[in-house]
């Protein structure tokens, strides 16, 4: 079967469904229909596979696409272009020395914080004898802090004066009654060994993490079905967690998580330390093996306890 001429091919394509597909080559002597034509990046012309290169179609703008990708040359002037400034740190600040103009906390100039005056200096003024080092002034005391400090002083004064008085009233007398006439927990090796045999606690706590304590309930402020016991706790547990476990062990009603009524809340009094422990501190930091803690209810001096 003879090959159809170009005119016959075009006529066939016009009458077929693929007439709108592809494009003709821009070369006048070719005009071949290519279903996947190539576009020259330099002259933007459309070409077939055989004429797709700039050399094959004698591109009038040969190489222009490559030159557009190159950076523009620097201006041919005698003055050099200014260097780009390095990124400025958000913490950049002048040296705290009054007469120093150095900017610190930059990539080239680190800042050094003085442990005496808590100001930052450059490397030349970092030492205390190289700048006027003065301790920072204490922040003014708030009204609440001043009130708590005064209340604590009055409380300590009352406690000291009533500690040896029999039948005294109030919180100071109650604390004195807890410490007066009471033998502190025996922390001797024999006593601790005996505690370890008698104590109860969570078996999951490793032996090296345990602190062994005598736990009691103060009779006048707490009604307990089991007035005392010996237990071990994890040294890393908070006083608040130990209080919950101790109250459960002694079967004491614990409503600490049900409201802020200080009249009903339980507190932990450390006999050897002579103070009420804060809920957030670790029991291992405040007590030692053989110490005694007492559960109290009804303390209303929150600013002194916390």
Describe this structure in words.
Helix content is about 25%, strand content about 15%. It is an alpha+beta fold. The chain has 3 domains: about 1-65, Zf-an1 domain, CATH 4.10.1110; about 95-130, no CATH class; about 180-305, Roll (Ubiquitin-like (UB roll)). A hairpin with a 6-residue loop joins β3 (about 40) and β4 (about 45). α3 crosses α4 (about 170-180). The protein is elongated, with a radius of gyration of 44 Å. Mean pLDDT is about 75; it is low at about 160-170 and about 300-305. InterPro entries: AN1-like_Znf, UBL_ZFAND1-like, Znf_AN1. One of its GO terms (cellular component) is cytoplasm. GO terms for molecular function: zinc ion binding. Pfam families: UBL_ZFAND1 (PF25327), zf-AN1 (PF01428).
N→C terminal distance: 106 Å
Tell me the β content: 5-15%
Arithmetic mean pLDDT = 74
The helix tally amounts to 8
Number of strands: 13
- Structural class by helix and strand composition: alpha+beta
Element order, helices and strands? HEEEEHEEEEHHHEEHEEHEH
Name the helicity range.
10-25%
- The CATH homology group name of the largest domain: Phosphatidylinositol 3-kinase Catalytic Subunit, Chain A, domain 1
CATH topology grouping of the largest domain = Ubiquitin-like (UB roll)
Uncertain runs are 162-172, 301-306
The CATH architecture assignment of the largest domain turns out to be Roll
